[in-house]
């Protein structure tokens, strides 16, 4: 029986073939990325009212297609970078392909005022992400918050229903915080103590199909 020419070729060239496959895989990864964004801390530029304020961004720059944007607000007295890890939201964003920001309160305290400086800062964050960072789908901007961050998220979304497609309120409140604008901005109330990866996943399931 005649020898298999493919078997003979493989014995002679197997090392070269394996190296070639590895090189191609590395080049593809470099060219296309691994699907994960890098988390970066940035200052709001000078042309904004909230210039100089910091925001933690987890989103690829200059996306070719429009992506949803999620703002996630920590509770008072919480380090934003620790909150990013605990929430699991960045890993979720990589899997579900949305842009994510963690706004940072001044001196670890939010001002729960829909017309205050923090509200203006959050609106500036949305504009900054849309104009200067990536291609945001303006019909799919969501805001989630834990504790005092939840109170501010709800207050801002209800005061600006045309800007937010859904709001997520996380915390064990008694009574639940207001205002209640569910008919204008769909609201998910997660009555749990922390915003962890499971709560983040539920918030995304609720929010992701909402459009304004």
Could you describe the 3D structure shown?
The chain has 212 residues and is α/β, with parallel strands linked by helices. Helix content is 40%, strand content 20%. It is built from 6 helices and 7 strands; from the N terminus they run αβββααβαβαββα. It has helices at 5-32, 80-87, 89-96, 117-133, 148-159, 197-207; strands at 39-43, 54-58, 67-73, 99-103, 136-146, 166-170, 187-190. The protein has a 7-stranded mixed sheet with strand order 1-2-4-3-5-6-7, sandwiched between helices. Strand 5, helix 5 and strand 6 form a beta-alpha-beta unit. The protein is globular and about 75 Å long. The model is unreliable at 20-34 (pLDDT under 50).
Poorly predicted ranges (pLDDT <50, ≥5 residues)?
20-34
- How does the major sheet shape up? 7 strands, mixed
Q: What fraction, in percent, of the residue positions are helical?
A: 25-40%
What integer is the average pLDDT?
89
Please count the beta strands (DSSP E, at least 2 residues each): 7
